[in-house]
Structure formats: C-alpha cells, structure tokens
Amino acid sequence: MTAAATTVDRRDVTRLPGPVAAVVEFLRTMSRKPVGLIGLIGVAFFIFLAYVAPFIVPLQDQVDVTSIYAKPSFLHPLGTDFQGRDVVNQIVYGGGDIITTAILAALFSTLIAITFGSIAATVGGRIDSVILAITDVALTIPQLILLIVIAAIFRPTSFFALAVILALLQWPALLRQIRAQVLSLKERDFVEAARSLDLGLMHIIFREMLPNMRSYIVIHFIIAMTLAIYAQAAIMFLGLVPLSGRNWAIMLYFAYNQGALFFKDSFFYLMGPIMAIALFQLSLVWLASGLEDVFNPRLRS
Amino acid sequence: MPVLSVRDLSIDYRTRRGPVQAVRDVTFDLEQGETLAIIGESGSGKTTLAVGLIRLSPRSARVTKGEIRYDDGKRAFDVLSLDTERLRRFRWADCAMVFQAALSAFNPVITIWEQFLDTGRAHGMGDKHKVHDRTRELLDLVHLDPDRILRAYPHELSGGMRQRVLIAMALLLDPRIVILDEPTTALDILTQRAIIDLLRDLRAKLGFATIFISHDLSIAAELADRMLTMYAGRIVERASVDDLFYRPRHPYSVGLMRAVPRVSGALGSVASIPGSPPDLIRLPRGCSYYPRCPFHVEQCLEQDPPLIPVDTPDHEAACIRWEAVAAALGSDAEAPVAEKLA
Amino acid sequence: MATITPAQGELQIRTFQRSPLSRARGHLGGLWGRPITQAILKAVLTVYVTSTITFGLIRLMPGSPVEIKIDELMQQSQMSYADAAASASGLFDINLNAPIHEQYFEYLGNLVHGNLGNSFLSKGTSVMSIILSVLPWTLFAVGTGLLLSFVIGIGLGLIAAYRRNSLLDHAVSTGGSIISSVPGYLIALLIVLIFGIQLRWIPITQMRGAFSPGITPGFTPEFVGDILFHASLPITVFFLTHIGLWILSMRSATLAALEEDHVTVARARGLSDGRITTAYVGRNAVLPLVSQFAIAAGAVVGGAVIIEQIFVYQGVGLRLVASVNQRDYPLMQGIILMTTVCVIIANLVADLLYSRLDPRIGRAGGATGK
Question: What residues in A contact C301, CB-CB < 8 Å?
C-alpha cells in the first residue's frame, strides 16, 4: 500500500514480521506530516469512544429533575441536560449510531460509484453517456434540500434506512472520479493483456483495475463519511427524522429546542455534541489529507 | 575586451543528501559578437551554467564562488553583485535568454502583443508606439506576419512560430548577449533548419554575442566560433570549432565526436561512451572522467586536472594524457571526425 | 486527487468534479458544435429530470403524500374517499381521476408556464410567489458571504503561496483547513453560543429575521443598514465556511502557476515582480477558481437551510423547513425545483465565465489549438 520507502535504512524494521513492519512503516510515513497523524489519532479516539467505551461506562439514563442543567462538577464533568442526565455519558453513547450510519452510507455510495463508474468507463458508448448524464443531473440538485424532502416523505425509521438514503445522494461525486481513473487505466498494458486473455469484464474491473485505485477509494470513503455525518447531523438537528436514540445530532436537537441555548450553565450541553461532531469531522479530514501524502509520494515536498 | 568574463564560477544545489556541485570552477571569456557553443551530455551542468549567468537559478541553487563580469564598453560590473532592481534591468536588456521549451514560454492568457508590451514597459520603453514599431520590425526580421501574430494567443501558434516570436522578443531591447538553451530541440528537422538559418542571419545583421547550449554537435558546428565541452560541471576542453572537431584532445570530446553517427558510415561505426556521469554529490578524487576514459592511468586519480594549453595557446584541455590522445587519433583522426560533418 | 483539504463536503468534491471543459465537450458525440448549446441542453434536461423526480416523489411512491392527505382528510373531516380525493385533488392541483401520464403531462405543462401550484397552507397563494419573496434574501446573504470569502480568500492564498513554509503560510493554511472542515451550521451554533449567549457580544435576539419590524422597505440607507445588520451573521457564517476552500485552492493553484515555464521566462525578461504576480501568476491561478466560485454559489443554497434556521433568517431555507413541518408538499416541490434552477444557472455562468477568461477554451481559430 505504501510506496517504496524513501527512509534511511532501519535494520530493526526488517526483522519484524511482514504486516507489522508495514504498519510501522505506515505510521512512520504518516508522522512526517503531523496533520495525518493527528487525524489518525483523532479518528481512533472517537471510534474507541463510540464502540468500546459503552462497554466500559454504564449507561446513565434516569431522569433526575432536581439537577437540570447542572454546572460541570466532578460527578458530571460537562454538566447535565434538560432532564438531569449526565452529558459526558451521552457523548460516550452518542457516537455509535452516527458513525455506523456514516460508515454504512459511505460503503453503499462507494460500492455504487465503483460499480457504475467502472462499467461506464470500461463499456463506454451509450451506457457511458447515460450514466454520465444521470450523474451530472444528480450532482446538480442541491443535496441537502433533496435530502430534507426525501427524509420528510419517506420518514426513515431505522438508521440503516437513513444510510441508504444518504448513500443515494453521495454516489455521483465518487463515480466521476472512479470513471476518470478507470478511463486512464484502461489504456494501460496490463488491461490490454487481460483483455487479450479474454478475462471477463467483472474480472478486469475487480481484479485488475481496482487494486490500482485503492488509494482513491480509501480516501473517498473517508470523505464520504464526513459528508454523511454532515447530512445526518443536519436533518436530525432540524428534527426531520423520526429517529430516537441518543446520538450527538439528536443531542443537539434537544439541546437547541429545549432552550439550552439560553442558560449559561448549559453551555457544555450544547458544546459537547458540537465539539464531538466538529472534532470527529476534523480528524477524518486530516486523516484523509495524511493518507493522501502516504499514497502519493510525489506530493511530499 | 570580452563582453562577458566568467571566472571560477561554481554553483551548488542544496538537496537532502547534500550539495550537488552542478557547476565547478567554470572560467571562460565571451568576445563581442562571437558565438560560443557549450556542449555536453545531460547533467553536465550546461543549463545550470546558462541560467546561472542571469541568476535565474531555482531557489535551491547557490553560487558558492566566482564572478561574472559584464563589459559592453559603456558599463562594466559583476553580475553577481547586482541588487534586485539592477539585475532586473540587466536581464533581457543586456543579456537575453531564449529557452528550450518555447512551447510554454508565453503566458497563455494574454496576447503576444501584450507580452511584447510588457517587456518593453519593464525596461522603460514608455511609448506604446515605439514598442509597437520595434516589435513589427523584429517580427519581420524573423519572417512572421506581425498583424496575425500580435493579435494571437500563444496556443494559437505552432511550435516553430513560437520559437521565432521568442527570438524576436529576445532582440527587442538590442542585447549584447543572447543565450540560447537548446533552441531547436523540441522542433522538427525542417523547422530546426529554418531557425538555425534565422539565427545566423540575425547574428550577422545585429552583431550580438551568443552562448549556445546544445547536445547536438552538428548545430554547434554550424553556428559556433568557439566551443566549450562540459563534463560533470567542469569545462574539460576549450577550443575553436575547427580545433575541437578535427583535433579533439580530451577523451570526452573524442567520445562525443565518435558518438555522432555518420551519414555515410558503415553500421557499427557509432560508439557510445560506456558508463554514466559521476555522482555530483560525492565526487571521486581526481579526474571525474576516469571510469569511462580509455586513456586513463594511475596518475589521473591524484587530482582534478586543470585546463592546460594543447597544440596552440587558444586550445585547452583538462587532461594530462592529451598527448596520448593526439597520438591515438593520429593523422587520420582528421578523416573520420571530419567525415561526420559531411 | 486534490491536494486541497476538503472543505464543505458537497462543495469540495462537487466542484472538483466539474471541469467546464468536460461538460462542454459532453458526450453527445459532437453533434452540437457550440458548447453553449450543449450546456443549455443539459440544463433543460436537468430541470426536466428534477421535476420528474419531484413528481414521482409526491405522486408515485407508496404512501405518497397525496394518499396521506386523502387519509388525513378522511379521518379528520370525516370525508368519503371521493370527497377527500376531490379535495386533495384541488389542494395538489392535480386531477386524481386522470391516468398517471396525463397528470404528468399536465404537471409538466404547468411547469413550462411557471406555474408551480398553490401552497397548502396559504391557500390561493402560488408557490412561485412565495418562493420569489424569500429567495432573494437567501441569495443576498449567500452571495455577499461567498463574494467576500472569495476575494479575501484568494488574497490570503496568494500571499501564503508566495511565502511558502513561512509562519504566515502555516497559520493561514492550517486555519483555513480547520475552518473548512467544520460544518457550517456548527460554526453558526458556535457563534450563537459563544458570542451571543456566553459572551453577550452579539445581540442575537435582535438580529432575527431579515429586517426589523417597523422599518419601511425601500432604498433608504436606514433600511439597507438594517438589512445588513440582520444579514451580518448569516453572511459571516457563509464567509467562514468557504474561506478555507479559497485559501487552500488559491494557494495550491498559485504554487502550481509559479512552477510554470512562462513565469521563469517572465523573470528572465526582466518584468517587475508586481506585474508577474498579477498578470502571469495571479491570472493563471485564479482561472479555475472563478468557475469554482459560480458553482459554489449554486451549491451553497442547500447548506443555507440550517443556517437560516439558526439565525431565524427568512430565506428560502427557513421556508423549506416550515413547509416540511407543515406538510406543504407543493411548496417543498417548488423549492427543490427553484433551488436546482439556481444551481443550474450558476453552473452555466461558471461555464461562460471560464470560457471567456481562458482564451484556450472556445476559440475556433489558430494555427494549432491545444
């Protein structure tokens, strides 16, 4: 995955087993540009927080009317919400839904983009024109607005359904990129060879060309995740989806609508989810930027 | 009085592995109106030297020592000592440079006329009409139609046309020196011919001195009065055109001559020089041509041979074995080498 | 891959995709010579497809809004199915008895005349008039914010490129990267939260709405000042959301332009640094950004929704949320269409602008084109 190492020889690395050495090398390349490493750490932190932490920290769900919007204290490091529940606890439990949905949405949109992008590029001709036309139209319609209307009409009741909807709105961008890449790869020798050996279309796409586009796909997956989070948070904040749960975006919705905005003490009730979402987005973006450097050695100055 | 006197010029590039000594102790004179050709393979330092003369090297380059003395009879100074503003005025007005890739030498979003105007204005030619007249004059000189050319954008012109425009622009301010860095490399043979004839023509008419950088020996032979051979950043031979072609004395020059295929020759008469140039960061001790030289001896490794006069005082070579080279070539050296120019 | 750190999600990838050249050349196999014909054709196609999609959304999906309305009417007003259907028919302005394709054509026919139907809630008010009354506010705020961010952003990007790796460069690039990664509405919330509530620097309650009640509209300085006062926060947010993109885009475009041969030649020609920066580096670097700008303008209309919600700014975004909450389907439909039209217009402008500014595109003549 990483390009040929340009580092001075480190004999210790070569003594480690293959995969471990690759990881070490990867980390070392990432650490050259701090942005990527910080992103990696951030993403790792949030994933840990969202998926592992709930097993460690027990859920505190009881409504406690006596301590609404309590100030931050040792017991409640970020204060409490409008029903007296601990904010930190909610943040811990709040990541899972959002991140899972984002991953699913990114996965679906990537799959659609890869499939149709490669087909469009390899088959060419009218199918290509049709796919491109559809993509262009899809790109033109303002995503968020369409999302809002679709969400209002279809009222997704599960996060899975939401992920599907999100994916349907995100594939166009990646599809164009994949198509462009495949178009350029199409002319390369190894594709010629595969074609002359009469290996089927699917084989050519998935076994020959895709491995060359791994870097694109990974980076775009990450960016698709940021888009999915952006969209999710947007519609949940507007209260347009009948999804319950305790994720960050819904926290924001409640915080905003329950007037947490106007109490000085409830500052962290709002700041908590805001910072969580913002920092996670930042981490993803920085991770993508760092990966770009890893995959594209020419960019390293 | 030579219009350009370069003394011990050395230019380094800063890289992560260490400084690359691209140009080492280069010394030469350029007389008024003469054409000096600098030949050598890729990486010999020719282009670094050329851009270094007008101090246009990239940021990572550094002049470590030397001087570049300019003297046109009215003014004299060391180019290396000029401040930014005086350097800006020196460039193009006193010494112009025609680059290798004329294809992208022009700003793609403004017309050719505007670029002439820019050039004129930058050097104090405030009157648009004056610039216009001079431009038309020059475009005529290079056999282009001013009306069509001036209105056009760079991408609308062919490669040959752009090269001519660049040459015309170079002469806008009547410089005393014109440096040409591989001016015909990117062009087809017919256009090459046209450009070479044009250059000869212009030189006769306007009398500027030329420094001609090329790896194409035949062109150098046509246009040059004197020649310099560069290898690994140093000048290894300095001679008149005749002397270099008929009586090369440095093994590298001999190799270059032999490497040119003969039109009339039998197959197998071409010999490339085995090996590759040395690493300019970690230069070996002694003569840098040693590994590839068929004439080398132990003594060659002791120190970098200085340029010493051979045959005549105007002919110098950086080789302690030049007599052996001369002997090897012998009297029939004249024949094979000269044949190549036939 | 772009070396730009992704900014507002939609915008970043979206703009990176659209090479006006690629769209102008299109894939109709060169049947239509002039790129502008193709662009218009594509615009019409997009409007058509969008309107069909909205038609489908409202009419054809199982559990479609029409059916829901009919159910509602039957339950709430105890109407029979026929009556409810008739009522719904009037509300949606469609003939439920006619076959689907007839309804479709009637719908399209209405569209061509600019008739988007009537709003559910404000009966008798056409959707078009509602949209036209709120759209200008959004366009004003978005446009001003975007313009400011563009102008300042490319300035900063240029400086950052010229002072590459200096402290200024690092500060500007990192700052731009951070700001552009945070979603716009979070920035808006942060502004309200921190500056409005906690620090009380900004009188946010006074700034709600597009203009203060009681001030008569007109071109008076008083009114204009009031508008600006109310729009200042949304404009600030739009400014902040996009400035990162311009800074980073311009920075990398400038760095690329500086590497170009013609810049070296320009220096060899003894041109002044000022002239080189503006006409040789600047103009070439800005070129792709100009078309990006027009495209951004089109795309950001979508993102304005939440920001208008937060600042209670009566633009089209606020209306959309209201219409969703009130199940005002014709209005929702109309808003989708109109905003798409905005994006289309913006893209057309982008294409036009680019082909005007870059002489290499769209000029027929010349000995050898590129």
Answer: 142, 145
Whether C261 contacts chain B with CB within 8 A: yes
Euclidean distance between CA atoms B155 and B39, whole angstroms: 31
> Shortest CB distance from A281 goes to which of C182, C305, C321?
C182
Interchain pair A145, C320: CB under 8 A: yes
Quote the pTM value: 0.81
Spatial neighbors of B64 by CB under 8 A, at least 6 apart, are: B10, B11, B12
Q: What residues of chain A lie within 8 A of the CB of C58, using their CB? A: 153
Task: Closest CB to C275: pick one of B118, B153, B169.
Answer: B118
Lowest-pLDDT range, A280-289, B174-183, B326-335, C192-201?
Answer: B326-335
Tell me if C261 and B152 make a contact (CB, 8 A cut-off): no
pLDDT, tens digit, 9 for 90 and up, residues A161-171 = 888 888 887 88
Task: Using alpha carbons, list the distances in angstroms from residue A216 to A110, A192, A223, C206.
Answer: 11, 22, 10, 47
Nearest chain A residue to C176, by CA: A282
> Three-class SS of residue C20?
helix
| CA distances (Å), origin B155, targets A274, B112, B268 | 51, 10, 43
C224 touches chain A (CB under 8 A): no
Residues 269-298 of C with CB under 8 A from B: 269-272, 275, 279-280, 283-284, 287
| Closest-CA residue of chain A to C298 | A142
Which one of C261, C269, C359 has the shortest CB-CB distance to B91? C269
pLDDT tens readout for residues B83-100: 999 999 999 999 999 887
